[in-house]
């Protein structure tokens, strides 16, 4: 939720002027740390995803590194693009921590927690590293439009997990591992990102209908909301699933876009020191420096002027629906259990 600030009256006016000036700078494109790939969803805002990827990769065991390397080698042998390797690495890291385990939920086994009972192969096959990797690639290639999807979304199309958003967590790590052998730049440049369009209009229509409803921490409707509950339910009304909590929405809710390119429906965030790890509030951008949000206890869903206070992040998140023509005709893997 938005932080409560207690200040002397004599300082309040000055602070307000500073906040207005900072918002103007951020919306005009200044004030944020420049990044080589600010619209890259796989490497994160300001280029910090590259550092995060290196840190996450450094925690892998030697066996996990070998499995990741084998995923890349088999992908190369099959003539698959680096994006396919990245997707497989993200799936393996999520399902087993890139380990060839002989246990799992129900009869799930191996790197990708494939279930023999669901047609993925015998227990001996799904725990054979090369078989499991090739099987993953076989099913991935049956997913329509997988090349244009966010990598974690494509992994979910193969795994068909009950927790579809979790694959995004390892985007930066997988991109880092693949970068030594192939190019996996952002899924699109800023100019090619999906526009707000009809989906955003639907999300904002839902949000406007909630005006005046009270803030309750942890609530996600229908009668009360907290900040992330409102944004989640607004986009759900548009047919787009995003996670519940504000920090998770920032890292897993969609594609990062500079604040000065924000469109109505984008998610705007506040965090201590403008640090994504310190995010504590999220709102829906309306345009014209206006936001719609659930502020804090004792207040209600409202429209308010965009403010800064030294905490407004220079990046917003644009949720987007997956639009492949149909689901892949594939057996359920480790996720659907």
UniProtKB/TrEMBL annotation:
Chain intervals with Low complexity compositional bias: 319-337
Disordered: annotated span: 318-337
Keywords: Hydrolase, Protease, Thiol protease
Gene Ontology biological process: proteolysis
Domain NlpC/P60: 197-324
GO molecular function list: cysteine-type peptidase activity
InterPro entries linked: NLP_P60_dom, Papain-like_cys_pep_sf, PG_Endopeptidase_C40
Gene3D superfamilies to which the protein is assigned, alphabetical: endopeptidase domain like (from Nostoc punctiforme)
Family that this chain belongs to: Belongs to the peptidase C40 family.
PANTHER family with a match to the protein in the record: NLP_P60 DOMAIN-CONTAINING PROTEIN-RELATED, PEPTIDOGLYCAN DL-ENDOPEPTIDASE CWLO
The protein's name in its UniProt record: NlpC/P60 family protein
């Amino acid at each position: 939720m938005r932080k409560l600030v207690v200040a002397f009256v004599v300082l309040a006016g000055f602070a307000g002027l500073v906040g207005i000036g900072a918002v103007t700078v951020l919306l005009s494109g200044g004030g944020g740390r420049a990044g080589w790939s600010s619209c890259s969803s796989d490497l994160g805002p300001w280029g910090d995803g590259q550092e995060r990827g290196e840190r996450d990769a450094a925690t892998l065991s030697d066996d996990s590194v070998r499995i990741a390397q084998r995923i890349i080698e088999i992908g190369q042998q099959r003539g698959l693009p680096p994006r396919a390797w990245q997707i497989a690495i993200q799936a393996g890291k999520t399902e087993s921590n890139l380990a060839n385990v002989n246990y799992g939920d129900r009869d799930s086994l191996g790197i990708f927690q494939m279930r023999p009972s669901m047609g993925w192969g015998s227990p001996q096959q799904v725990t054979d590293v090369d078989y499991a990797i090739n099987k993953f690639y076989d099913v991935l290639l049956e997913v329509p439009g997988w090349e244009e999807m966010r990598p974690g979304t494509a992994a979910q199309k193969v795994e068909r997990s009950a927790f579809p958003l979790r694959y995004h967590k390892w985007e930066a790590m997988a991109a880092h591992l693949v970068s030594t052998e192939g190019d996996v730049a952002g899924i699109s440049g800023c100019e090619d990102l999906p526009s707000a369009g009809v989906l955003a209009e639907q999300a904002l229509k839902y949000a406007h209908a909630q005006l005046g409803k009270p803030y309750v921490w942890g609530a996600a409707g229908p009668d009360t909301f907290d900040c992330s509950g409102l944004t989640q339910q607004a986009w759900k009304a548009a047919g787009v699933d995003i996670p519940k909590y504000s920090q998770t929405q920032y890292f897993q809710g969609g594609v990062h876009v500079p604040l000065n390119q924000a469109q109505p429906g984008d998610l705007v965030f506040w965090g201590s020191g403008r640090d994504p790890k310190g995010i504590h509030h999220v709102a829906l951008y309306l345009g014209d420096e206006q936001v719609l949000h659930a502020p804090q206890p004792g207040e209600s869903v409202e429209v308010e002027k965009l403010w800064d206070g030294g905490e407004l992040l220079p990046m917003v998140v644009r949720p987007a629906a997956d639009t492949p023509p149909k689901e892949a005709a594939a057996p359920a893997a480790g996720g659907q259990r």
